[in-house]
Amino acid sequence: MAEALFYLLGAGSVLFAVGVVRARMPLFSVLSLLGTFFCLAAIYLLMGFPFLAATQLLVYAGAIMVLFLFVIMLLNLGNEAELERHAGLSLSGRRLLVAGTSAALLGLVGLAAADVDSAFAADTLPKERALDDLPTLARLLFSRYMLPFEAASLLLLATMVAVIVLAKRQRERPGASGPTAREPALREELVESGVER
Amino acid sequence: MSVPTDHVLALAAILFALGVLGFLVRKNVIIVLASIELMLNAANLSFLAASRHWSQSALAGQGDANVGPIFAIFVILVAAAEAAVGLALVIALYRLKKTVALDTVAELRG
């Protein structure tokens, strides 16, 4: 049962991955990627990594995908006319396709969860526990992997600053051409925001 | 689940190859970023396959099965940071060029 489910999910993830590469519009590509993430989360469940399956769904499918879709909407890359031309399906047809695919993916993840549940009940999982049990992982993360953990926090801080700098709209300042001309304005701004007085 | 580790690794290899293909062939920045995410996921799958391999009864104790999930967590973290910076770059690029096609960006004459 679990083996058949694994090969089904593997085939599904490969099909969705082909969709990511072949899609004509970024919107379809990103939605295919979402399908791959769901299939992989179910595979992680089957392999005995329930925490990573949950992380996969929360961080990848929840956060990163929303970021992708948000940028697509922000830049208006999936406009309605082009969607009509490429999709080859009516609105209700597309709705049916999306609803069917989502239901199938949810069903597969549910089946994988049920399978893992029965494996736990029958004590057939190695060492009678998940392979990524949280107490062990947490202890390792705060002892042997302390340095990578701190480096990761630094990386996230740097990312946050970089994203704000990159995505902020540059304001046009009349008369401020060189760095010397801009300096008083910068200082004014810093004083205003309370960083410097 | 008694699927051999080889098969899981083969699946990871196929997904990684598809990611490389998309990264090299496609011109749309967002599809290129999606391909990178695909490659990172394939790497994660192979980490977890190795972890499962080391934890299975005949091999238990020979390797550290906990390294796989920890590396997978770090990979997910790096993927999140990469996606955020990449998409901010896409927004900056779009503001500059009004397009997200990579072949229009040749300022560095690469």
The topology string of helices and strands of chain B comes to HHH
Percent of sequence in beta strands of chain A? under 5%
The portion of residues assigned to helices of chain A is over 70%
* Poorly predicted residue ranges of chain A: 176-182
Which labels suit this protein?
heterodimer, A: 197 residues, mainly alpha, B: 110 residues, 0% strand
Folded structure, characterized:
The complex is a heterodimer of chains A (197) and B (110). With 197 residues, chain A is an all-alpha fold. Chain A has eight helices and no strands. Chain A is flat and about 50 Å long. The mean pLDDT of chain B is 87. Classes of the chains: A mainly alpha (197), B mainly alpha (110). The interface between A and B is large, with 62 and 59 residues.
Structure at a glance:
With 197 residues, chain A is mainly alpha-helical. Chain A has helices at 2-22, 26-47, 50-74, 80-87, 91-121, 134-141, 146-167, 179-192.
Provide the fold topology.
The complex is a heterodimer of chains A (197) and B (110).
Chain A: H1 2-22, H2 26-47, H3 50-74, H4 80-87, H5 91-121, H6 134-141, H7 146-167, H8 179-192
Chain B: H1 5-25, H2 29-55, H3 67-97
Helix pairs in contact in B: 1-2, 2-3
